[in-house]
Structure formats: C-alpha cells, structure tokens
Amino acid sequence: MASSTRGEDLEPLLEFLKTARGLDFTGYKRPSLQRRVEKRMQAVRADSYDVYRTYLESHPDEFVELFNTILINVTAFFRDPPVWDYLRREIVPQIVAEAEADSIRVWTTGCASGEETYSLAMCFAEALPESELGSRLKIYATDIDEDALAEARHGAYTDDQVEAVPTDLRERYLERLDQRWTVAGPLRRAVIFGRHDVVHDPPISRIDLLTSRNTLMYFTPDAQRRIIANFHFALQPGGYLLLGKAEMMLGRSPLFAPVELKHRVFRKALRTDDWSHVPRVRPASQAAAAEDGWSIRDAGFETGPVAQLIVDGDGNLSLANLQARTLFNLAYRDVGRPLKDLEVSFKPVELRSQIEKAYGERHAVALRDVEWTQSNGQGHVMDVQVAPLFGDGGAVVGVGISFIDMTRHKRLQEAVEHSKRDVEAAYAELQSTSEELETTNEELQSTNEELETTNEELQSSNEELETMNEELQSTNEELQTINDELNQRTDDLNQSSSFLESILSSLNDGVVVLDDELRVRAWNERARDLWGLLPQEVHGRHFMNLDIGLPVDRLRASLRGALAGDSPAAVVVEAKDRRGRAISCRVRIAPVSAGAEGASRGVILFMETSP
Predict the structure, then answer these.
(1) 505-610 is classed in which CATH architecture?
(2) Selection from 299, 139, 256, 279 nearest residue 201 by Cα
(3) Which distant-in-sequence residues (6+ apart) come within 8 Å of 376 by Cβ?
(4) pLDDT tens column, 263-283
(5) Under CATH, which number does the domain 294-409 receive?
(6) For the whole model, what pTM was predicted?
(7) Helices 146-154 and 61-70: crossing angle, nearest 10°?
(8) Which long-range contacts (CB under 8 A, 24 or more apart) does 251-256 make?
(9) What is the four-CA torsion angle of 75, 80, 84, 89, rounded to 10 degrees?
(10) Residues near 301 by Cβ (< 8 Å), separated by ≥ 6?
(11) What CATH number is given for 98-277 in this structure?
C-alpha cells in the first residue's frame, strides 16, 4: 500500500463514514481498522484514502462490502462447548431462581447472524417451563450490521451450521424446512433483534445476563472502559457478564467480580455507589472533573428522559446528557467546544439567537412543534426550551436547553384529528343515509301499494288465463280429433296412391296422366322404358314441352278435344324410343272427369307400340 495510506490519513475517511452512513468507527483499534479498510482498497484498486472515499461516493454498494469486512461476524452454535456447559449447569439455573417471577432479561451484543443468541435461548428454554418461555424470557440481541441482523431474524441455517447443536435440542427447538433448519416459533418469539452501537448508544437496562464474546477486543482501551461502564450500568445488581477469551480487561476492573475466570464469567460488583459508573460525559477540564464527584443530581441529569444541553456564558457546550448525545450524535470530545461549531447549534433549530433572547429577557424561551429529520431519515417533532441559568449573585452564567420529543404526542394528536374528521364525515354520511332511508321507505310503501294492486290484477288475469286454458284444452282436443281424421285420410290416400301406382305399373302400355293444364301428374314404368325419363324428372312439367321421341305436336288437337270432354279417336304416330329405334305408337286419349258436373280435370294417354 502506498505511503498516502498512513494511519493519520484514516480519520477523515472514518468521519465521512459516520456522516454518510451513521456508523462511528472512531472507537475501534486503528491498526486492525486500517488493515481491513486497506483490504477493500486493494480490492477496488484505490491507492489512497481520498481516492477510496471518492469511490464510495460513486459506488454506494461498496459501503456494504466495507462494513462486512470491518465487522467480522464470527459466530456459531454453542461455540466453545465447555463455556456453554458451565453456563447451562451453573449460571442459567441460578438466574432463573433469582430473577423476578415475571421477567428474565438477557442482552447479547455483537450477535452477528444469531447463532449464539439462539444458543442462549435454548439454554434458558431448558431451564424454564414451556408455558413460561414466551412470557418470562426476553433476549435482546444487538449488532450494528444490518445485513447480519436480517439473517438472524430469519433464523434459518444449513446442516453444517447446526451440526454443533445437540441432537435433543435440535429436535425440540429447530424445524426442518426447505433443506434448512429454522428456529421454532416459541423460541424465536423470545428473541428481539435490533441495531445498537455499544460505544455510542445508551445501554439496555435491568439485564440479568449480558454476553459480549470477543467484541471488546476490536475497540481502543478508552472505548473499552466506556463500554464496560455501560455494561455495569445495564446489569441488575448481581447480574452476570460473559466475555470471550480474547478480553482480559475485567481482571483489573473494580466494577465486576470474577465468578469463573477460566470461562470468562463475571458478576456485577455489589457496591453502595453504583451510580458512580452511570455512563456520562465528563467535564472538559480537570478542574471541573474534580468538583464534588459524581452525585445523585449528576446521575439524574445524565439519565433523564429529556435531551438536555448546558451551555456556559462563553458559548461553550459544558454538559450533554445521554439522551442528547444519542439524539444529536455528540461525542465526548464535543464537550467544551464552542456551541457554534457544532451541528446542534442550528439543527433542529437555530439556537444562538434563542440563547441571546433568553439572556436579554432573563426568562425561558420556548419553541413549539419544531420539525427535524435525522440523517437516518427518522422524523421528530420537538418542543425546545432555552432557559437562563442564574448564579449565586443573580447573574446569568449560562443556559439550559431542553429538547422534548413530542413526536408521539403529535402523531397521536394528528391521529385524533384524523379520527375526528372521519367521525364527522361518518356522521354526515349517516345523516344522509338516514334521509335516503326515509325516502326509500316511502318509495317502498308506495311500491308495496302498487304491488298489491298489481297482485289483484294478476289474480284477475290468472283467472282469465285459466278460462282461456280450458278453452285451449277443448280446442286442442278438437284439433287432435281433426288430426286423427287427417291421419286416417292420409293413410287412405297413401293406400289409394299405392294402389293406383301398382295398377299403372302393371299395365303393358305406357300411361301418362295430365292435368287440365297438360302438366304431367303420373308417368308409369312403361312410359319410362319408352322415352327414357324418370317419373320425378317429368312430374309437373308441361307435356307439350317434353323432348322425347314421341311427336307430341300431333297430339295437340286430340288433347284439347279430350279436355273439352270429347272422346277422340286413337292416333297412330311414328316415333323413336329411348334407344333411338323407330317405332309405331298408337296413342289413345281419354278425358279424366270428376265432380257432379262431369267437368274434365285432365286427360290420360295410353301408348301402345309396335315395331
């Protein structure tokens, strides 16, 4: 790596990471931190921290790779089995016995992908009745790596990852799903995962067991001392602390007493002045540090629920409690600096003008509903109060600034207003609906009356229809009788037609029957043999228009005579049959009469041939 990557050049990059992504690595050991950053620089071929910073700005995905490299997530189920055996055998039963009836609180820092957290959960699940697992046990698992936390929340692991889990525990607390092992529901609900920075974020309180295995070794000695003080504050009196083998600092700390040094188990020292180790910001000067020690008043200021700043008469930040440091991302080195040099002087509100106003008016200045959005995108609504502080002689020696987070109240107020508007709208809609209902009721009443009238009309119509139905039934019976008669007549006609056709077929002469318009009505088989035309081909056609071997024109006079009722003499004509042979055809024509008057209804031709 080039000389431009010297350790002193790393600080601007760390400040950039803090500003851009909210991750503060200033408490980490520089040699280790530098090695990991330079590993990523080599991967992207950046030869200086400035070049790497430019690369980060243009490639946001590189932040994830860098954080994964810095935050080494080394964990496993029941890592270091002797430690876990001792924990299950000695510590967990004692915690269960000493804890309050309705609460066992465990905090595991640097949880990574969750294997150690779920190992702890299994240990306690073995010591608790199944019915109390979800109600009494709460395990808070924290880390600053969001990707690792997301993996831990899923609670899904491969066969290799769960190999160290004892078979009986695996069968009780893990479930097989899609080639992976997932944490069972009751055990998963006992664990709460969340992002937490052990250096800068306030500790979780009232903890019975705190595990931080091989996490402290990445921080500087000063950061380790602050973290240990936070751990001491977080634990219940007599609470247990489990560290990794790489952390040796507690051997010299008065805050904890060793329980089992071999397995790195400690217990919070029972002191009468536990408040002396509440995490706080120390005064900037040594003289101020020597004043009065750490009193109950100081502890109250430090752990107060409202973010508070104290600014002296020279405009320097004198004190900032835990809430203020967390909210405004203030570090210990910021105490003693001029307020005007800090971002909090103008975010969330411009404070310097308000401080001057408080000095001038000598009473508190209040600002309501100040809206502010943190760098992580979280929005707040605050009431800010700037109150002058008076010394013994009545002179103003500084100001106290309180930031009261009204976000929840504001959201509730907005929710109430929204609900009120919804209720008003619902009431107006209900009123309108009631009026519509009354109108609809009247319309239904009118419709009901109309329906009653219509019903009477329908009853009358029904009676008429019944009468008509009886008449139709009678008519239908008559039609059925007529239909039977017609069927009988049709049968008779068919029989007569068949009889007539059999007679015509049995004659040796060709027979043709014509109606009164000389159209063909009958054409027997002999006529078909003579002239080569089928009956269906000639039926209905005019006889005089037939193109057959018979010279029909010579029969015209005889046909007219027959239609007139005469009985013409037979006519002999020369003709040609269907084979083209010349034949002599003797045609006898007779009228067909019907009716009482004897009027002719057609003629019948008898054709006798000779060669």
Answers:
(1) 2-Layer Sandwich (3.30)
(2) 279
(3) 22
(4) 889 998 765 344 334 444 344
(5) 3.30.450.20
(6) 0.43
(7) 80
(8) 253/228, 255/228, 255/229, 255/231, 256/228, 256/232
(9) 180
(10) 308, 319, 321
(11) 3.40.50.150
